[in-house]
Amino acid sequence: MKEAMPVLSAGAGLHETLALLTSQLRPDANHKEDMVFLKDVFSEKSLSYLMKIHEKLRQYERQSPTPVLHSASTLAEDVAEELQSGPMSAEEKELLHLLTSPHLKAVLSVHDTVAQKNFDPVLPPLPDDFEDELDEESVKIVRLVKNKEPLGATIRRDESTGAVIVARIMRGGAADRSGLVHVGDELREVNGSSVMHKRPDEISQLLSQSQGSITLKIIPAIREDDKLKESKVYMRALFDYTPLEDKATPCQEAGLPFKRGDILQVVSQDDQTWWQAKKVGDCNLRAGLVPSKQFQERRLAYRIKMGSLQSSKSPKKAVYDQGCDKEDCDCEGYFNGQYIAGLRRSFRLSRKDRRGSLGARINELKQKVIAENPHRYAVAVPHTTRPKKSHEKEGLEYHFVTKQAFDADAQNNKFIEYGEYKENLYGTSIEAIRSVQAKNKMCLVDVQPEALKALRTAEFKPYVIFVKPRIPESRRRRSAATSPGGGEHGRITEEDLQEMRLSAQQTDQQYGHLVDRVLIKEDTASACAELRSILERLERETFWVPMSWVKA
């Protein structure tokens, strides 16, 4: 007598069918091992969970759902940004945690892809005769799917063999995500078209123009198992970079543009000349090429050298700019009835006939800031070889030293900078800055850009502010122009404006990478307020410094 099998209802799901089938499996003498194997497979919880998920999806599919919106990810980001803009309750913090979790972000991304019907194309079948041409031990066929994005790989021509070689794989690109293309692979064909006799730019164009599926015939590199380790180095950009304007880049389309102040995550430093990086906060997962630190420094040094050669053709006499129109004036800086020593000492190179000294105006900013709060800010007391006046005190206005002692200190590199005015020497010493710091005060120093190399050390950790006047656009005119800053320092000529403009441009090109903040001086009041705000933030906020300054 045979045992009757239970009858399933019409609404039974797949997981119920699977459970019933498992219960009906009975060991058989002839197929005992097969039956045990099947029972073990059908009893797996993971398989049961998959069946339940499949059933739920089919039920949802029968309801013919339609998306409410096509940009759920963007909406979630906007909500998260709004939550972070102010104080949050416990519920709001929980919501923010959910919206920023990678799993929910992935679900919303999939939702948007489905809502926008942005599906990858279906791969076409391989040609029937394709396999006949291949030696499986030496050649492989790689088929990738990409949309409008670049392939994410750069190529080079081997000088000895003429072969087209994969030079680098861009992190996060289509080639990197596939895991099928490696550095050193030899590229033979793209979509059935030979690249042996094509120029690298023609091949790059062919790769970038290919949409949907792209088929590559590749001779694998000897070492395919070299997996690049993801770097966790973060850097702050110290200059603007536009790949399309960089003729040295191996692939302009693969370059990553950035602005000064952007935070970059360097994901690969394997190439000593071109690193791969991503901009922090950028939703683009694909890395781009940026010049390496060493390469950029070499380029900058070359530009400085060429600029020096150009400027040496028309040398100018360097003089000490006292910042005062009176020939016999030796003003030290009385401000609001309070005497502040050394504030007018600015070792700036200037023409003797220049009026409206920028150095004097920078000193005026320092005067105002220090006079408002002398307990927090101070300047370094300078050294001088001029005779002491009757009202002056040693170590207050100046450190009065002999010329021999001054020269000895200069030879021993004890000054961050020094200069000569009216046959007297003036200098700011490193020890004078240390003396201000020892009093737990912030030392405000106005120096020539060349002195930044001596100041930018782990000991001082300076925050560099480049004060630039608002220089009007060049105009052809014969009459004198009012000087930037409200005309409070007289009138200057168009020639003066042009020289100031070129000086600011050269300073930015040669030393801009050392500058933390650029302060555009419209007028004294607004510039003083901005400087005060910057200094106050420095006391309560963190700022970027070279890694070597914080290493133990």
UniProtKB/TrEMBL annotation:
Domain Guanylate kinase-like: 344-536
Residue ranges annotated for the L27 domain, each copy included: 10-64, 65-122
Start and end residues of each PDZ domain: 141-222
InterPro entries on file: GK/Ca_channel_bsu (IPR008145), Guanylate_kin-like_dom (IPR008144), Guanylate_kinase_CS (IPR020590), L27_C (IPR014775), L27_dom (IPR004172), L27_dom_sf (IPR036892), MAGUK (IPR050716), P-loop_NTPase (IPR027417)
Protein origin, superkingdom: Eukaryota
This protein's record includes keyword Transport: no
Name used for this protein in its record: MAGUK p55 subfamily member 3-like
Organism: Onychostoma macrolepis
